[in-house]
Structure formats: structure tokens, C-alpha cells
From TrEMBL:
<comment type="similarity">
    <text>Belongs to the ATPase epsilon chain family.</text>
</comment>
<feature type="coiled-coil region">
    <location>
        <begin position="91"/>
        <end position="120"/>
    </location>
</feature>
<dbReference type="GO" id="GO:0012505">
    <property type="term" value="C:endomembrane system"/>
</dbReference>
<dbReference type="InterPro" id="IPR020546">
    <property type="entry name" value="ATP_synth_F1_dsu/esu_N"/>
</dbReference>
<dbReference type="GO" id="GO:0045259">
    <property type="term" value="C:proton-transporting ATP synthase complex"/>
</dbReference>
<keyword id="KW-0175">Coiled coil</keyword>
<dbReference type="Pfam" id="PF00401">
    <property type="entry name" value="ATP-synt_DE"/>
</dbReference>
<dbReference type="InterPro" id="IPR020547">
    <property type="entry name" value="ATP_synth_F1_esu_C"/>
</dbReference>
<dbReference type="GO" id="GO:0005886">
    <property type="term" value="C:plasma membrane"/>
</dbReference>
<comment type="subunit">
    <text>F-type ATPases have 2 components, CF(1) - the catalytic core - and CF(0) - the membrane proton channel. CF(1) has five subunits: alpha(3), beta(3), gamma(1), delta(1), epsilon(1). CF(0) has three main subunits: a, b and c.</text>
</comment>
<keyword id="KW-0406">Ion transport</keyword>
<keyword id="KW-0139">CF(1)</keyword>
<feature type="domain" description="ATP synthase F1 complex delta/epsilon subunit N-terminal">
    <location>
        <begin position="4"/>
        <end position="85"/>
    </location>
</feature>
<keyword id="KW-0375">Hydrogen ion transport</keyword>
<dbReference type="GO" id="GO:0005524">
    <property type="term" value="F:ATP binding"/>
</dbReference>
<dbReference type="InterPro" id="IPR036771">
    <property type="entry name" value="ATPsynth_dsu/esu_N"/>
</dbReference>
<keyword id="KW-0813">Transport</keyword>
Length: 138
């Protein structure tokens, strides 16, 4: 088989479902590139972008922002489960930039207050906003 089926699922349902010739994801162990025929694998995803090179046109690439999750590869079927996933075309970059500014402000306040829990939450919000901006600007 010269293609894979890629499906991204969130609590809101299926967010992406297409055939791909290649995908690139960011796992906790580093970047993972997947071509058809890849060995079966399960890995933990970081907050990051997913690159999907579609089979309909080798120049057609979809970019999807995910907030972590799990990738399962089995027999040319790729299932990605994440708490959220947004395609490049669906991202409101100006809204993401406002979220980034808000997270930076919250992080600064948490550091000033020496509140590690709030600082960790602000750091995650900042990572998510930066990821959305990066994907939205592809």
C-alpha cells in the first residue's frame, strides 16, 4: 500500500480524516516521520504541529496544531488522539496572539507571586498559543 489513512480524534469527534503519503509529528522522544509500511507503534505527542503530505498532490501539505496526545500506528492506519486539534485554515491567528500575550502576562504574575502551579499552567497556555500561531502562519 502506498498511502496511509490518518485520523485525528478529539473529544469533539473526528477533526481530520485523509490519506497521506507522509506525516511528521513531535513526540516526547523527538520528531517522528512516518511513511507507508511503518512498524506498529504507540507514542506520546507533545504540544506541536503535525505535517501531513497528502496523496492527492505531493505539494499538498496539511498542518494541524495539537495540544499533545497519543499517536498509534498500525498497518498503514494512523490514529491520533488529542484533547484539541486545529487545521491551519481554521486558526484565528489574531486570537492566538492575544492568548499568547495573556499567557505571558499570567506567567510573569505567577513568577512574581512565586506560584509554581500557576506558572506551569501559564507556560502550557503559552506553548499552545505559540503552536497555534506557528501553524496558522504556514
Amino acid at each position: 500500500m502506498d498511502f496511509m489513512t490518518v485520523q485525528i480524534v478529539t473529544p469533539d469527534g473526528i477533526r481530520y480524516d485523509h490519506h497521506a503519503a507522509f506525516i511528521l509529528v513531535k513526540t516526547t522522544e523527538g520528531e517522528l516521520g512516518v511513511y507507508p509500511g511503518h512498524i506498529d507503534l504507540i507514542a506520546v505527542l507533545e504540544i506541536g504541529e503535525i505535517k501531513v503530505r497528502r496523496v492527492d498532490d505531493e505539494n499538498h501539505v496539511d498542518w494541524i496544531a495539537v495540544n499533545g496526545g497519543i499517536i498509534e500506528i498500525s498497518k498503514n492506519k494512523i490514529n491520533i488522539i488529542s484533547d484539541s486539534a486545529e487545521r491551519e485554515r481554521d486558526i484565528d491567528v489574531s486570537r492566538a496572539e492575544r492568548a499568547k500575550l495573556r499567557a505571558e502576562r499570567e506567567m510573569e504574575e505567577a513568577q512574581h507571586a512565586r506560584n509554581a502551579d500557576l506558572e506551569r499552567r501559564a507556560s502550557i497556555a503559552l506553548q499552545r498559543a505559540i503552536n497555534r500561531i506557528r501553524v496558522g502562519n504556514h
